[in-house]
Write a structure and sequence with these properties.
nine-stranded antiparallel sheet; alpha+beta; single chain
Length: about 575
């Protein structure tokens, strides 16, 4: 009976880790390899790609041309060439760099000044938005859709006049354009100290007749980006309509079958693992939101857009409309701030907290609090582990006491096996009577493993999806807690100038974790069957290999948790005379 329960506990642990490997880790590694390959191809090609079409306007908006806007770089040109192909106004803030194209008035050039491709602060800034002519065009537009299609409104070929030297947190820029038929369009763009843009549009009517217009905005992505195809993380088109979070994967959105919703207090856009580009209409207005997937020259084009309510510009009068755009990292506290201060419903849910959000988010806030106190997320993980151990201290104590009794009973159990080895039913009856007489519970040994499962999963989620953990250093060789331990025993942890293949990348922290697991296993009751005993002794080696590709922060957590468990278990067993 006790062997069966021990096997059950071990099998459960192995099943969990194998499940993580199959559903999460293996797809994650494939995803990251695809991103590296795409980045390499872009560099090799100079950032070139097929010519990107204009954004498709929302339903009711003017038809968009199928060619790239005037001044767009030819296919195959570099990002720099694409940016130089048309006049621009610079964006320069402490957090954002980029420019706005004056042809079309697009926001199509944006990099994140405080985030880099690698842990090297001199590596290139993360590119969020890109213009037509680059490998992956990704841009934002806003404008007006006329009720009368004969009314000329700004489009992707419009050449705007600009007032202002550069867009900064203190100096907005103003774009103006006259349609030559009595309508004058003004667009003022500002940005706060973080990543929220405000676009204020105004139309003056000198035509002598009223004009009906609808404000709209769109964010367009050309080409399907490499995204996760597994369950721990959502990447794709996202929005909040009528208080309900709506997520559409790229693979699920069929060409010609738009997803639409009419809602007050909406927001919508694209979410990546760490980054978000989201349109935010006025939260007190009802808009028509839409996700679309179209094909043009065999190229996928995805678009999130909204169409505002009707606005009539009287003759001799004017109208105005405003909207916001978030374009930046999904910093948890920042999204919470926008949710509360700007009233953006469920904006914090842009971070994919997952099914265990009731554990995941508190764990994140605990880690973030500890980080604010001690200044290191690795130390914060160690402190969190101590708190979790304290929380479940009574339960673990009960489990270890039961395991102590089981270990002390091993000589008597061996006698029962020798006496009733051929009578399985009688053996089980005698075993149960023995457990009952001394108050031992074979299942109690499973409790520490079962309790650790949701904490393990939630911490994995926090390490993987939150931008705060990205490139967060620990000490020594761990420069990114969200990435695997970069060392390997195969090259003596860097002493030999050789980069081992992936299956040999077993670093120092996974080995430390394996050693602590081995020590813990030595304290547990050993199976009477020599074959089973050898099999269980092999488990620390298997777990070490399996966890080698997991985020270093998670391996550190597991190793530290094992160490605390060994200390606690040894003290209890020593007092019981079982150690």
């Amino acid at each position: 009976m006790e062997q069966r329960n021990l096997i059950l506990a071990i099998a459960l642990s192995v099943a969990i880790l194998l499940g993580f490997q199959y559903f999460f880790e293996h797809p994650r590694l494939q995803h990251e390899a695809a991103q590296r390959a795409q980045h390499t191809e872009q560099k090799a090609a100079g950032g070139g790609a097929a010519k990107a079409p204009s954004a498709a306007p929302p339903a009711g908006a003017p038809a968009a041309p199928t060619a790239a806007p005037a001044g767009a770089a030819p296919a195959g040109e570099s990002r720099d060439a694409a940016l130089a192909a048309a006049p621009r106004i610079k964006i320069d803030t402490p957090r954002l760099h980029g420019s706005i194209a004056l042809v079309g008035g697009r926001l199509d050039d944006l990099t994140l000044a405080q985030y880099h491709e690698t842990v090297d602060p001199k590596s290139p800034e993360i590119v969020l938005l890109s213009p037509a002519g680059t490998a992956s065009p990704y841009f934002v537009e806003s404008g007006w859709a006329p009720a009368d299609k004969s009314v000329k409104v700004p489009d992707s070929d419009t050449k705007w006049n600009v007032t202002g030297e550069a867009l900064t947190t203190k100096t907005p820029v103003t774009l103006t354009w006259d349609n030559g038929a009595g309508l004058r369009f003004t667009r003022t763009i500002s940005v706060d100290d973080d990543y929220m843009f405000t676009v204020e549009q105004k139309v003056e009517n000198h035509s002598g007749a009223p004009v009906t217009l609808y404000p709209y905005a769109s964010v367009t992505r050309i080409g399907t980006p490499p995204s996760s195809s597994y369950y721990i993380l959502f990447e794709g088109m996202i929005g909040n309509f009528n208080g309900i979070l709506k997520e559409e994967k790229y693979s699920a959105l069929k060409p010609g079958e738009p997803v639409t919703a009419t809602s007050p207090g909406a927001w919508l856009g694209f979410t990546d693992k760490y980054w978000l580009t989201a349109l935010v209409p006025p939260q007190d207005e009802t808009v028509k939101g839409r996700f679309t997937h179209t094909l043009l020259d065999h190229t996928d084009r995805y678009q999130a857009d909204f169409l505002g309510s009707e606005k009539i510009v009287p003759a001799g009068g004017s109208i105005a409309a405003s909207s916001r755009l978030f374009a930046g990292p999904k910093v948890v506290k920042l999204l919470d701030k926008y949710r509360d201060e700007l009233g953006i419903n469920s904006f914090d849910n842009a971070v994919d907290w997952g099914w265990f959000y009731f554990l995941t988010k508190p764990i994140f806030f605990a880690l973030d609090f500890f980080y604010g106190v001690i200044g290191n997320f690795g130390l914060a993980i160690l402190l969190l582990t101590v708190l979790v151990k304290l929380l479940f201290f009574p339960l673990a104590n009960k489990s270890y006491k039961a395991m102590s009794k089981m270990k002390l009973l091993q000589p008597e159990m061996m006698k029962l096996r020798e006496k009733f080895g051929d009578d399985k039913q009688r053996l089980n009856e005698e075993m149960m009577a023995l457990y009952k007489r001394v108050g031992a519970n074979p299942l109690a040994g499973c409790l520490p493993i079962v309790v650790q499962i949701p904490v393990f999963f939630s911490l994995y989620k926090v390490l993987y999806v939150t931008i705060e953990m990205r490139q967060a250093p620990f000490y020594g060789w761990i420069r990114d807690l969200s990435a695997p331990d970069p060392t390997s025993f195969a090259n003596l942890f860097g002493l030999i100038p050789w980069h081992p293949p992936a299956f040999l990348m077993i670093g120092a922290w996974p080995l430390i974790m394996g050693a602590t697991m081995f020590l813990q296993q030595k304290l547990n009751p050993q199976p009477a069957d020599p074959v089973q005993a050898k099999m269980f002794m092999f488990l620390p080696i298997m777990f070490t290999y399996m966890l080698a590709s997991f985020p270093a922060g998670l391996v550190i957590y597991w190793a530290w948790n094992n160490t605390l468990s060994v200390i606690q278990q040894w003290v209890i067993m020593h007092r019981a005379g079982a150690a």
